[in-house]
Structures are given as structure tokens and as C-alpha cells.
């Protein structure tokens, strides 16, 4: 697995090989295939094979590996809790220091930005509506000045050309004023100034959020959690259980980040390609998108 998020200690690698070999021997003795175990546990076959062979580089964070071992053991008839506790899940992951992010002001910050964004959008729409209504309003004809009885009707009188014989130049009709041209209306009222990413947890997962090059959050989010982050240029989302996360881009429709138990990393940007969240997490979501495998 590229870009290993945590430092794997040698004890974890050794214990994984021992437990994986024990699971493989018991499964083969019971004549149970990996496909059957995958259907019972909802764990991909490649991750089950990595557990049996002790290939820790192909597995997510140790806390998820411990859960995989428990579900695997329960599926083939072994005490999953006892076997999972034999695998050390502690890592060298450093917890972020407490800062102003935990205060009430920091929690209200995304809401304030969202309200400001809504006010700007409403103002832009109102301005466009005003311009459209102004252009569609018919212009009233100019009021005609009544002619006095002694004045001849110029419109009905024959035109008398003036030439060199009386020394007066021929009057040229004055050009009518051209109508004012309305400014061209672009397809969008506002250019994309920021990117907003919301997550809804359908299962527990480890998550790391990097906003404009700075880590805003790193930790485990429980099932049922709803969070949102906003970046001016770039937002990077990395998750240890992609199947347990629903992601929405700029308040659009939520999409599942990936498969259960898979580690995925996605980059969101503010360019034109970031207008929609694609259905598949492996596809390009914004300027760039990379998978953890």
C-alpha cells in the first residue's frame, strides 16, 4: 500500500503472519473457500488473502485489520474476539494537539461560510433577474407634440429639394440613437471560488482531511457522523474504510467513496473539472484523484 499512513511495528507484522497462517489452516481444513468467507464477512478476497499471507503492506490501518481478523474468525467458526485481541492494534500515529479547532467559534466557521456563499448566490441571481426584467420591458413611444392650426403638416407636404440654386445645403437626416446593448449573460453567475466537501458516515472509518496543505482533521469518525469542510484551493480526503463514507461535493448528490475495507484517497480542487462528484471514486473527481492502492 503506497503512502503508508502509520508506522507498522515489527511485532504487528509477525503476529499477522502467525494469525493469518492459523486462519488459513483452519479454513482449508473446513474446506471453505475465500469467496464464501468474503460473502459472509463483506471483506474483499484480496484483503482476506493478504491476512492469510501476512502481507501487511496491502492492508489498511491496524485497527481495521483487527476487525477483519475478528470477522474472518467468526465466519469459519473460531472465537473472533480472542483471535483479534492477539493482534496489537496500537500504532505510532500521533494524535493532533488540542487547539482552537475544538472551540464553538471553530465549529460555527463552516456554517458562516455557507451562509455567506448563499447570500452571494442569491444576490447574483437577483441581479440577473433585474437585468432580464429590464430588457423585456417595452419602451413607451415618445409623446407627440400637437401642431398648431397655422403650421403645415410636414409629413403630408411634398418634399422640396434644396440645391445649389438657393445656396442652401441639403440637410442630412440625423442618425437615430442606437439602443443600449445589455451586458452578455454568462452561463454561471459566480466562478468557483472554493470547494466544499461533506461526508456522511454509514460505518465507522478512520479519516484524514487536508485543507489547502494543512491537516484539519485526523481520527476515527463513528457511524452516523455528518461533517463538512471547505477549502479555497484544494481538499484531500483519505479514508481507511471507503465503503462506509458517503461524500458530497459542493452540496451535490452524495456518492459512496469506495468498497468496504478499501483505503481511498481523493483530491478535490476549485477548477472547472470539480463541478460534479463522479459515481466511481476511481475516476477523476477534480483536478486530480488518486487511489490508495
UniProtKB/TrEMBL annotation:
Residue spans of biased composition, Polar residues class: 139-156
Keyword Transmembrane helix: yes
Pfam family, one: RodZ_C
Gene Ontology molecular functions: DNA binding
Annotated Cytoskeleton protein RodZ-like C-terminal domain residues: 201-267
UniProt cross-references to InterPro entries, sorted A to Z: Bact_Cytoskel_RodZ (IPR050400), Cro/C1-type_HTH (IPR001387), Lambda_DNA-bd_dom_sf (IPR010982), RodZ-like_C (IPR025194)
Protein name: DUF4115 domain-containing protein
Amino acid at each position: 500500500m503506497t503512502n503508508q499512513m502509520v508506522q507498522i511495528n515489527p511485532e504487528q507484522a509477525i503476529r499477522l503472519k502467525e494469525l493469518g497462517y492459523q486462519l488459513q489452516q483452519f479454513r482449508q481444513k473446513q474446506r471453505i473457500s475465500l469467496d464464501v468467507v468474503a460473502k459472509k464477512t463483506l471483506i474483499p478476497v484480496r484483503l482476506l488473502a493478504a491476512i492469510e499471507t501476512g502481507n501487511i503492506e496491502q492492508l489498511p490501518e491496524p485497527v481495521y485489520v483487527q476487525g477483519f481478523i475478528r470477522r474472518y474468525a467468526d465466519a469459519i467458526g473460531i472465537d473472533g474476539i480472542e483471535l483479534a485481541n492477539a493482534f496489537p492494534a496500537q500504532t505510532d500515529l500521533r494524535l493532533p494537539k488540542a487547539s482552537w479547532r475544538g472551540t464553538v467559534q471553530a465549529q460555527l466557521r463552516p456554517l458562516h461560510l455557507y451562509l455567506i456563499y448563499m447570500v452571494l448566490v442569491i444576490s447574483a441571481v437577483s441581479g440577473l433577474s433585474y437585468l432580464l426584467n429590464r430588457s423585456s420591458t417595452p419602451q413607451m413611444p415618445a409623446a407627440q407634440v400637437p401642431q398648431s392650426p397655422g403650421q403645415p403638416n410636414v409629413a403630408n407636404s411634398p418634399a422640396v429639394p434644396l440645391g445649389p440654386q438657393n445656396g442652401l445645403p441639403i440637410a442630412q437626416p440625423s442618425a437615430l440613437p442606437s439602443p443600449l446593448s445589455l451586458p452578455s449573460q454568462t452561463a454561471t453567475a459566480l466562478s468557483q471560488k472554493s470547494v466544499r466537501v461533506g461526508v456522511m458516515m454509514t460505518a465507522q472509518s478512520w479519516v484524514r482531511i487536508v485543507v489547502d496543505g494543512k491537516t484539519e482533521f485526523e481520527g476515527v469518525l463513528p457511524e452516523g457522523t455528518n461533517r463538512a469542510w471547505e477549502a479555497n484551493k484544494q481538499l484531500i480526503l483519505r479514508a481507511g474504510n471507503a465503503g462506509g463514507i458517503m461524500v458530497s461535493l459542493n452540496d451535490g448528490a452524495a456518492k459512496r467513496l469506495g468498497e468496504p475495507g478499501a483505503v481511498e484517497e481523493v483530491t478535490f480542487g476549485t477548477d472547472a473539472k470539480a463541478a460534479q462528484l463522479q459515481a466511481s471514486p476511481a475516476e477523476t473527481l477534480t483536478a486530480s484523484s488518486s487511489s490508495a492502492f
